[in-house]
Amino acid sequence: MSVFKGRGIVLKAYDQGESDKRLALFLKERGKIYVTARGARKPKSKYMAGAQIFTYSDFVFFEKGQMLSVTQVDLIESFYPLRMDLDRFGAACCMVELCDKVIMESVGADEVLHLLLLSLMQLCKGKNPAIIQRAFEFKFYQLSGIEPAVFNCPKCGKTLESEAVFGHEGALCKNCRAGGQVPLTPSALKALQQIIELPTQHIFSFEIDPLSLEQLEAASMLFMRRNFEVTLKSMDSLK
User: Fold this and answer.
1) Would you give the distance in Å from CA 95 to the centre of its chain?
2) Do 46 and 13 contact (CB within 8 A), yes or no?
3) Taking the domain 2-77, which CATH number applies?
């Protein structure tokens, strides 16, 4: 038996038993873990505030064998504004779902956790949720070790400047395009390059037209399915 502390975000919360909750947490230095918050569904539970999706807290855990239970929660940020707007809520759900499906258990991924925190903060500030979500996704791919090509064509090595399409490996030049790829406007390509090139805290500042933003969504879903074998159920809430 042991007790340890951790700081992180609730990625998923679902009912367990009569009054408990089962939580998927994304913790600093520890990556993803699953814990039980006993009695968290009771009206006067001390865990209720910190057992909600998106909440960022300091936790204390009790470990006994293979079982982990929460014994203390100190809320840092609830990201409450995300629950007041359907588009922002849907974008945030997609982000935490992607982390839940890709981040490995008990393997630290602090850069991704930092990216998720910044992205949720940007959503709370009222910025375009589709822009925030696309920036998060493409930076997530890079930080997870599968960076899409956006500066040079992965087929011929040509520098990508204006005309391009997006395929399974990233952006391709017009001479290497094939079927089943997403066309990219110069604006969409520039946004991709900015997301990959800039530090995480600066990736949300780009402006983009609606068509180019739609292309980024299609390109991201294509890359996600091919390289991470993930489809986001939360995307249905944005349709």
Assistant:
1) 3
2) no
3) 2.40.50.140
Range in 137-141, 153-157, 231-235 the model is least confident about: 231-235
Topology (CATH level 3) of domain 82-238? de novo design (two linked rop proteins) (1.20.1440)
Give the C-alpha separation, 73 to 99, whole Å.
Answer: 22
Contacts of 199 (CB under 8 A, 6+ apart): none
DSSP secondary structure string, 172-215?
Answer: EEGGG--TT-EEE-HHHHHHHHHHHHS-GGGTT-----HHHHHH
How many CB atoms neighbour CB 192 within 10 A? Answer: 29
| Alpha-carbon separation of residue 79 from 11, 115, 132, 204 (angstroms) | 13, 15, 15, 18
Phi and psi at residue 170, to the nearest 5°: 130, -150
pTM over 0.85, yes/no: yes
Task: List b or e across 214-235, with b for residues whose CB sees 16 or more CB atoms inside 10 angstroms.
Answer: ebbbebbbbbbeebeeeebebb
User: Nearest-5° angle of CA 72, CA 75, CA 79?
Assistant: 145
